[in-house]
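Please fill in the sequence for the structure shown.

STRUCTURE ENCODING:
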């Protein structure tokens, strides 16, 4: 897969900056979007900031999903969803106060997004490796607490990915250090292993320590594919579902059109290419539902595969949203059934035991047709709820017997 460099003037960098660590997504302005944005899927982007003192490495991100904004203030821009477990930010400062991450960039590369040669990538990797610290002492308690809550489900590799994603989302490389114990653990793995040893001691196994070290982003700088994802070239990969859930911010939901997704053996490949997932009506539905449940005190979540996950005290809800008309209600319901089946399999594998699968589909106002869909999908233990744009809550998402709110609360 390709390597890109994204050169930005430091005065324009603030919108890219979180408190610390990697963001779940980045927006490339329309005037930086390459001619073939689909080539960004599966690519590595090295972010560099320019100022009057020179050019400085800021971060390296691995792109999982590419979408085009179709409305709002970002119309025409491209949204890049990032695999946090394979990405990292190098320094807390937008431009490093020292020359630790200073790089020599060809004068032919202007501000913007460009493909780069392997020789440049190699020079970047050398700089990053030279900035990896090793210390004897442990991380302080306040640092461990900043990791927050991490879902520990599935096999050691699945748990390791969740832990590394949490670490890289909360910290930059220059805030962490590696350890010479436990097989010389690199920085993000070291933090993750100390966190799990402190808060989930029974999970701190040798297998997990090995998995953490293997996928630490400072150890995977020079390649895009994970070693565990090798397969014969004539094999067709089975559907894979991203179960790495993140909180939904309704203010950041806009209509986005699917462009491309990483298909190089990544674990975050949709069960079905969801080309409609970011269509305007679909996003309007998601925004309205997510906003409602945040008001009710719940924390709606999603991944690059799963439209909506509502964590509940007893049985959490895995929801697929579908727009529909009287002409495509049957086909949309069939797609939703297959996708929810894939989600159920993936969630069980990832350790999410008690979940109900819910299809939320636009009502056609055709009573007999709606009833037929409900009857068929109920045979597969799918809960069918209809989205009624004209109705107030809680009846807005309901089926005559239950509402989404009654299932969640």
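FILLED IN BY: designer on duty
SEQUENCE:
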């Amino acid at each position: 897969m390709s390597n890109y460099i994204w050169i930005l003037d430091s005065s324009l960098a603030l919108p890219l900056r979180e408190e610390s660590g990697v963001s779940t997504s980045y927006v490339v302005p329309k005037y930086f979007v390459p001619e073939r944005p689909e080539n960004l899927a599966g690519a590595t982007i090295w972010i560099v900031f320019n100022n009057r003192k020179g050019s400085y490495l800021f971060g390296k991100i691995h792109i999982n999903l590419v979408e085009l904004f179709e409305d709002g203030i970002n119309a025409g821009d491209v949204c890049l969803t990032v695999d946090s477990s394979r990405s990292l930010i190098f320094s807390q400062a937008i431009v490093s106060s020292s020359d630790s991450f200073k790089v020599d960039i060809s004068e032919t590369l202007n501000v913007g997004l460009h493909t780069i040669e392997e020789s440049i990538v190699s020079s970047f990797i050398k700089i990053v490796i030279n900035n990896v610290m090793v210390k004897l002492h442990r991380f302080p308690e306040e640092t461990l607490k900043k990791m927050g809550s991490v879902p520990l489900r599935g096999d050691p590799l699945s748990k390791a990915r969740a832990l590394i994603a949490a670490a890289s989302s909360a910290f930059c490389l220059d805030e962490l250090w590696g350890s010479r114990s436990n097989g010389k653990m690199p920085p993000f793995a070291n933090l993750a292993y100390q966190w799990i040893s402190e808060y989930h001691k029974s999970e701190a196994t040798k297998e997990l320590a090995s998995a953490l070290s293997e996928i630490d982003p400072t150890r995977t700088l020079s390649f895009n594919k994970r070693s565990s994802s090798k397969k014969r070239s004539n094999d067709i990969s089975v559907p894979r579902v991203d179960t790495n859930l993140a909180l939904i911010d309704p203010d950041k939901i806009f209509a986005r059109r699917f462009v491309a997704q990483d298909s190089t053996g990544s674990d975050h490949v949709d069960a079905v290419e969801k080309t409609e997932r970011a269509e305007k009506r679909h996003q309007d539905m998601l925004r309205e539902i997510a906003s409602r449940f945040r008001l009710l005190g719940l924390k709606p979540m999603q991944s690059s595969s799963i439209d909506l996950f509502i964590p509940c005290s007893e049985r959490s809800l895995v929801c697929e949203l579908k727009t529909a008309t009287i002409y495509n209600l049957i086909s949309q319901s069939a797609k939703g059934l297959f996708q929810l089946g894939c989600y159920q399999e993936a969630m069980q594998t990832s350790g999410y035991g008690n979940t109900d699968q819910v299809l939320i589909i636009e009502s056609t106002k055709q009573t007999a047709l709606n009833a037929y869909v409900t009857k068929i999908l109920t045979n597969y233990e799918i809960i069918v709820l209809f989205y009624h744009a004209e109705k107030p809550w809680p009846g807005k998402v309901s089926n005559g017997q239950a509402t989404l709110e009654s299932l969640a609360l």
